[in-house]
Model the fold of this input.
Amino acid sequence: MAVIYATRSPEISEREKRNMERSRRIAAQGMVLLKNDGVLPLPADGRKLAVFGSGVRRTVKGGTGSGDVNSRSVYTVEQGLVDAGFTIGSASWLDRFDEACSSAMGVYMEKISALIREKGPAGFMEVMENPYRDPDVPEITMEDLTGADRSCAVYVISRNSGEGADRKAVPGDYELTEREIQNLEALTAGFEHTVVVLNVGGVIDTSCLRGMDGISAILLMSQAGNISGLALADVLTGKVNPSGHLTATWAERFGDYPSAETFSYRNGDVDDEYYLEGIYVGYRYFDSFGVTPAYPFGFGGSYTEFAVTVKSVELQGGDVTVSALVKNTGAKYAGREVVQAYVSQPEGSLDKPYQVLAGYAKTDELAPGAEQCLTITFPVSSLASYDEEKAAYLLEKGEYVVRVGTHSRNTHIAAVLTLDETIITEQLKNNLVPDCDLSVLKADRSAFFTYDGEAAEKEKAPVIAVPASAVSLFTAVYSGTPEALVTDKTEKVTMQDVLAGTATLDDLTAQLTVPELADLCVGTARGGFGSQSTIGAASTACPGAAGDTTSALLESRGVVNLVLADGPAGLRLSPSFVADKDNNIIPGLGQSAFGNMDQLLGIAKPERPSDAVDYYQYCTAIPIATLLAQTWDLAAIEEAGDIAGEEMEEFGVTLWLAPGMNIHRNPLCGRNFEYYSEDPLVAGLCAAADTLGVQKHPGCGTTIKHFALNNQEDNRTHSNAHCTERAIREIYLKGFEIAVKRSAPLSLMTSYNLINGQHSANRYELLTSILRDEWGFGGVVMTDWGTTGGGGFDAPKEYKYGNSDTAGCIKAGNDLTMPGSQQDVDTIIAAVGADPAENPFALTLGELQACAKRVLALAEKRERAVRR
Ligand code: BGC
Done:
């Protein structure tokens, strides 16, 4: 009889209520005040508020695709404002927009169901590529304005995106539509103040908002999960003082981003992506190339003011510690401030950006007049740059200027660290060499950002000499082909023996046959079930979860199957399902994880047995990753992870397919909302905090993804990212490295794309040499869904670059091919002992055992946790 973790009660649980409250508190901390001339906070005085815009009723809680979480309900902006005591003075306009949306949705669904009926699961991939979009908003007429309080209007602009498709730099997406602009003009003419709220997952063009008289405040609410409206109302009314800061640079115009012309589909080539900006991503580019942003990286306002005074900068061992006193100098509102430390590295043989973020900290809530001393500590070695010629990280000799402030364009020099000689901090080998000539951007220091008084500050700054002995050298030792495991145990070893301590995992692994080992290394979406499964909802054990590991060894060897469920904005499961009296889940009854997907796929609903039982698994949709990062509060992010972990325990999920931590290379990446930042330190610290929160729950783990350079969504599955090893290591891998070293996530997911000519899923140098040998990762590596092809996951197209190979995954140290097909199992079996002259991915038994053993180790961990 299967174990069912879900509840039989349809009633809202105490856990749901509690986690919504926690999520609400976190969400409000990550909203960013971009402008305020004093109109905010709005007194919650019950006034009849004029609230317009696409996000009022159709509030976007998070993006689409596998990152979309099925919560019980979503508090819209409208509901949040009503809950805060306002009445809505714009209902007829909102009704008109609702009608327009339902008819647009009707037309879309007809088109899509025809497509899916024709093409099956492959058609589903096309849905991802052409997601439903709301139509443009209706015009605001004079009649719409009657009756509402004229002192202030609120306009909520929403945008949505998701996996499989990049955003477009066009009106309705990156830009405002003509109609949105007209509507804003009508409001600014008719109301004393207009507050613009951005219910968006990433950057949009704000030029028109910044240029329009009468827009008194702009608040980035982001996408805050199922309590979106409540958290927004908390901030608008001042119940919570906004303390979020941006984790990406908001450019004045889209063309200002260095990859603007060539990103993804923009140059007509989605097969090859050339990362010609090198290390100059985000603020590293804007600050080094004299480009002024609309809102700089790290920027965020408050209803109060703060003064930041650096008290000291000290070197202890190899660590630099900045102490800064933060005082709330305002008279009325309590609030929190973020202090950021940046470092400018010296010019040397390697070019360097103007500055890089080295560390940050956030105050507690400070009452007016209150102060707090923050400390920010970072290792000197984190300031090293990767030298491809030496295959090493170097701290070049010269001056390291420490800057402290409240955003990247508002810092002051606090100290200058000096280094007399160039030090190698890590001796590695080049593992990801480009497959073509890449002539990347180089900065000319004359264009560097500067400000009045910078030179004088530097003159006066304390100088701290860093002795070479402060930094130790790490020399990587690379592993060879794993030896085959052998055992002297003759009787049959099971997982129970391992748990009892009478046998080891090596004994168990060594006794397994090649088909058993192959089974362990492939997920369960096979045969009959696989043919009906949709991407991202292939689990048989926990409906709506994205997949399972095999249960084929359950009876024979006592190896439990593990459930893997998506994120990152919470736990993605089917909200309800139905089982028979023997706990056999009946597929097709209950709610699908992808809305009406079964209906679209033409899967007939099976008959409901008379004794069938309904089960429920409502999860909390927490804020999107970008909002979490905008809190700059690692404790808050750990709490968000704790919410996911608690729900994983409740529903029997072992691995959360989150957090996503790719870099915001370009604002048009359709999945940026699932990721934290353009800065690798922020991404790494946030992913580590999320992981620590989840992994507090025994037997539960994160899956940091998508490793690596999955920075575009159009042709994410088959594009080749060409990038220098320096940029790969310093920008695109650094966050993963930080997360692995700080928090030991239980697993990691590879990306679909190729890196410099080879699929990341098949890249030994990435998954073994770098991830395991250099960083010490000890968990399971899995593929993204359908990376190896088959299973109907590819859109029916011709691709320049093909799929990765399942045996190639094993060879590279990619332990688990997900969601798995029989073909994957057969490919592995055929490769063991094959002739390398005939099969480039010929496997030794030892290579397959090494992968299977890591999956077994995870199952052991889970079992120990469950039995605790
Ligand atoms: C996504 C992954 C996700 C997986 C399972 C893929 O399409 O890229 O992020 O975890 O599906 O749903």
Summary: The pocket of beta-D-glucopyranose is lined by residues 66, 163, 535-536, 546, 566, 657, 705, 784-785 (CB under 6 Å).
